[in-house]
Amino acid sequence: MAALTKALLRSVVFTALTLVNTVVVNTSLAESIAATHTLPESHQALPEGELLGDFSSLDPSKSPSENFDLLSWTLSLPTDLNKDLKADIIYEKALSDSFSLKPLFYTAADGGMVFACPNAGAKTSKNTKYARTELREMLRRGNTRLKTKGVTKNNWVFSSAHGSVKRKAGAIEGSLEATLAVNRVSTTGDEKKVGRVIIGQIHATDDEPIRLYYRKLPGNDKGSIYFAHEINDGDDVWVNMVGSRSHTLDNPEDGIALNEKFSYKITVQNDILFVTLLREGKPNLSASLDMSQSGYNKNNQYMYFKAGVYNQNNSGADKDYVQATFYHLENQHQGIESE
């Protein structure tokens, strides 16, 4: 019965997936029950063919926290300096106090915020296979009286969550937008893992409503953008935006090169996931996905955004690594409350 329920749930999410503009999904859709999702105003208002953010104020002589508001974030590093068998975490106040650590997290020569992570490194938990140098959203902004985990004022929930859950949460749904360039991907190791890096996420209690990937294969000049939607306690639904996640793909048509700046905006509104990709001088690409049957409105589910580099290759040479530089990063929510 459990297997049947999971299969049915996966089918519902697949068929409710809607794509906008020229995005291609790697599974067939049942047109009779597929939904149509109008982009929210926040995505319709995005500039066409322009990057998000103002980079003019970025100062290469300053630390990341002096160029970016990092009080809403903690930073996970692929190090274990205190030997507790877990990745080190830099909490909000320390992160905002001019923290940097070359070669993992620092300010680039053009003022961008650099994230780098080797293939091998300390993990955040026993269940995690890969290392990361990644920010985790913290709505509490340094108020340590609020618990990090759980349905608290530190995290947000879906609009369809029970009213009592929404009252406990820090916000209801929201958006993450970023402008970045992927500078390097892994080039050694398992061919099914090489070149992969996650550059943005929504993480829930245990699973991920979205993991946004960049992937460039060693023989290609251009990389792909795609994302996974993980059904709560279920399987992944994969959506291609530029190219695909294939490990045998030729140069993807209109792919993104290393060091090429691009922007993304991820939004959850009324249980619908919206993703828009922006590039200079090119049409915006958007995709939407109905998450109302994915199980994230349960009473125990809470959300937070993540951004940085989550290396998806745990094989290959010890010195192999991924790196990305962020030029704009902003988390947006309605109804944030504090205690």
Helix content: under 10%
The major pleated sheet works out as: 10 strands, antiparallel
What Rg do the Cα atoms give?
19 Å
Instruction: Give me the secondary-structure category.
Output: mainly beta
Q: Give the integer mean of the pLDDT values.
A: 90
Distance between the termini: 43 Å
Low-confidence stretches: 1-35
CATH class: Mainly Beta
SSE arrangement, N to C:
HEEHHEEHEEEEHEEEEEEEEEEEE
Q: Tell me, what's the shape?
A: globular
Number of DSSP strands?
Answer: 20
CATH topology: Jelly Rolls
Strand content: 25-35%
Our count of helices gives 5
What's the structural domain tally? 1
Q: Which CATH architecture would you pick?
A: Sandwich
What is the compact description of this entry?
By secondary structure, the chain is mainly beta. The protein contains five helices and 20 strands. The chain has helices at residues 2-15, 41-44, 64-67, 92-95, 163-168; strands at residues 18-20, 24-25, 73-76, 89-90, 105-107, 113-118, 132-137, 156-157, 171-172, 174-184, 196-203, 210-215, 222-230, 236-242, 256-257, 262-269, 272-278, 285-290, 304-311, 321-332.
Describe this structure as you would to a colleague.
It contains five helices and 20 strands. A hairpin with a 5-residue loop joins β13 and β14. The N terminus is likely disordered.
Architecture blueprint of SSEs:
Layout: H1 2-15, E1 18-20, E2 24-25, H2 41-44, H3 64-67, E3 73-76, E4 89-90, H4 92-95, E5 105-107, E6 113-118, E7 132-137, E8 156-157, H5 163-168, E9 171-172, E10 174-184, E11 196-203, E12 210-215, E13 222-230, E14 236-242, E15 256-257, E16 262-269, E17 272-278, E18 285-290, E19 304-311, E20 321-332
Parallel strand pairs: 8-9
Antiparallel strand pairs: 1-18, 2-14, 3-4, 3-7, 5-6, 6-20, 7-19, 10-16, 10-20, 11-12, 11-19, 12-13, 13-14, 13-15, 16-17, 17-18
